[in-house]
Amino acid sequence: MITTVVRPRVLVTGAFGKIGSQCVPIWEQSMDLRLTDLRVPSGDGRAFAADLTDFAQTYRALEGVDSVIHLAMAPGEGGRVDYSEEEADPADVQRLQVNVGATYNLLEAARRRNMRRVVYVSSMTILLGNKHSPSYGTDTPVEPTNLYACTKLFGEQLARVYWRKHGLSTICLRLGQPFPIGNAEFDRQWSTNKRSRSIYAEIGDVARAVECAVTTKLEFGVFPVVSASDNPRVDLSATRAIDYVPRAYLSDAGLSYHEDGCFPPATGPLVTHNPGELL
User: Fold this and answer.
1) How many Cβ atoms from other residues are within 10 Å of residue 52's Cβ?
2) Mind spelling out the 3-state secondary structure of 63-105?
3) pLDDT for 214-223, tens place per residue?
4) 9 vs 19, 32, 34, 37, CA distance in Å?
5) Tell me: the pLDDT tens digits for 110-132?
6) Helix axis angle, 147-166 to 103-112, nearest 10°
């Protein structure tokens, strides 16, 4: 008897951003993808432009798919600095419109479309307000670092509401600092800053974690996602419930890959603070 493998039909929001553009080639090996962003390149029949702060556009974007990988977001850094005292920070306004408004639109549209799964890409910044915490896990009290982190926490909580009230299956991934993303300062910081190294997520591990979230039989959960390192401050034991095991290992010796998930044992105390660190 021939067994037919049904590939998930998945919409990727923010598909042409720094993370999506690197992960899509990996995901397309196991998923049938549709790709959306504010602006999309020509020549890809899977791609279309959509503004997710507009509910009608969001609802239409979900047609023909059964799951969503929600990467679209306004980042935590950057923006104009020349606004007046009587003007709200335009970058903060955008963060609220995109990270709060568009996330609401997506979850509500997914509910109306009877979607199978939403994968909500959240952020470890929800926890990192206390930089000296010895470790981070699913039970660590939230302490957002900034407005961006607050918007990501809102997304997690709204996803929980939609799961509890409407049965919308959502897997939330608290993503560490992804790399490489084309930012030289962030891309190399893990190699010299052992404290920050503990919350970095190599892009292949990011793609793998999202794939696990799309296919897991769990209906809801909030899980941290980082790569392995010689400073293991992030407890990934809960994330194993979705079958995620990192393959990248970060250490003073550099970046190495371990397909079997067996990493060199960490030695010495955890490093919780480095002078002059960015994260």
Assistant:
1) 25
2) CCCCEEEECCCCCCCCCCCCCCCCCCCHHHHHHHHHHHHHHHH
3) 999 999 999 9
4) 19, 5, 8, 17
5) 999 999 999 999 999 999 998 77
6) 10
Provide the whole-model pTM. 0.94
pLDDT value at position 244?
97
Contact 135, 234 (CB under 8 A): yes
- Residue 78 identity (one-letter amino acid): G
Angle (CA) 40 126 243, round 5°: 75
Instruction: Give Cα separations from 157 to 142, 154, 185 (angstroms).
Output: 12, 5, 32
Which strands, in side-by-side order, build the sheet including 117-123? 47-49, 32-37, 9-13, 67-70, 117-123, 170-175, 220-225
Q: How far apart are CA 66 and CA 118, in angstroms?
A: 9
- Token pair for 7: 């590939």
**CA separation for the pair 93, 88 (Å, rounded):** 7
Instruction: From residue 18, give the alpha-carbon distance in Å to each of 21, 23, 242, 267.
Output: 6, 9, 24, 33
Query: Which of 80, 105, 108, 106 lies closest to 93 in space, CA to CA?
Result: 80
- Measured in whole angstroms, the distance separating CA 140 from the mean position of its chain's CA atoms is 18
What tokens were used for 243?
């079958």
Residues 198, 232: contact at Cβ < 8 Å?
yes
> Do strands 32-37 and 67-70 pair parallel, antiparallel, or not at all (unpaired)?
unpaired
Rounded to whole angstroms, the Cα distance separating 95 from 151 reads 7
Token look-up 């549209």 returns 109
State pLDDT tens for residues 15-36.
999 999 999 999 999 999 999 9
pLDDT band at residue 278 using 50, 70 and 90 as cut-offs: very low
Neighbours of 245 (CB within 10 A): 18
